[in-house]
Amino acid sequence: MGPCQERSCHEKRLVDTLDRQMSFLSFAPKLHMSALTGEKVRALFEKINLLHGQLFRRIDTNVVNKALTVMVQKNPPPKMGRGRLKFFYATQTGVMPPSFALFVNRPDLVHFTYERYLLNQFREQLALNEVPIRLKFRKK
After folding, report:
1. Number of C-alpha atoms within 13 angstroms, CB side, residue 108?
2. How far apart are CA 107 and CA 85, in angstroms?
3. 74 vs 82, more confident
4. Do 94 and 111 belong together in one domain?
């Protein structure tokens, strides 16, 4: 096996190890670059600009509410005991990271799996794919 093949095998193992250890950052972008050759340094600055735009993006309340309506219609919250979680509206409350308040009838009925579903859907529908998002569930 030549040196290039050995190096690519080593790089793959390193990437696999990092992916496992950083699974909680699955949304974060990855960029492989070389400090030795300067390969992909320009791409790093392009990615920084993209992330900055996502972190500081302000999204109109109407857009947030339409996205929430689509999410809930596509996958309604599960019934918990005698109650069912109802969403009234949502609004963006901050940036860096983008933060949203979701007004509901009973915040205690938000299951962590449904919250994860909403996080993933907010990322996808609001083009916030590569940054963390905060959701706060508040009683109306």
Report:
1. 3
2. 8
3. 74
4. yes
Specify the number of domains making up the chain.
2
Q: 3-state class of 103 per DSSP?
A: strand
Q: In b/e form, how buried is each residue of 70-105, taking b as 16+ CB within 10 angstroms?
A: ebbeeeebeeeeeeebebeebbbeeeeebebbbbbe
Residues 14-67 have pLDDT tens digits of: 778 877 887 777 777 888 777 788 888 888 899 999 999 999 999 999 999 999
Q: Whole domain around residue 44: which residue ranges?
A: 3-54
- Looking up residue 99, the CATH number of its domain turns out to be 3.30.300.20
List, for residues 88-130, the tens digit of each pLDDT value: 999 999 999 999 999 999 999 999 999 999 999 999 999 999 9
What the block records as the tokens of 136 is 């706060």
The verdict on 27 and 91 lying in the same domain is no
- Asked if 99 contacts 136 with a C-beta cutoff of 8 angstroms, the reply is yes
Asked if residue 30 and residue 86 are part of one domain, the reply reads no
**Are 15 and 71 in the same domain?**
no
Q: Categorize the per-residue pLDDT at 3 as very low, low, confident or very high, splitting at 50, 70 and 90.
A: low
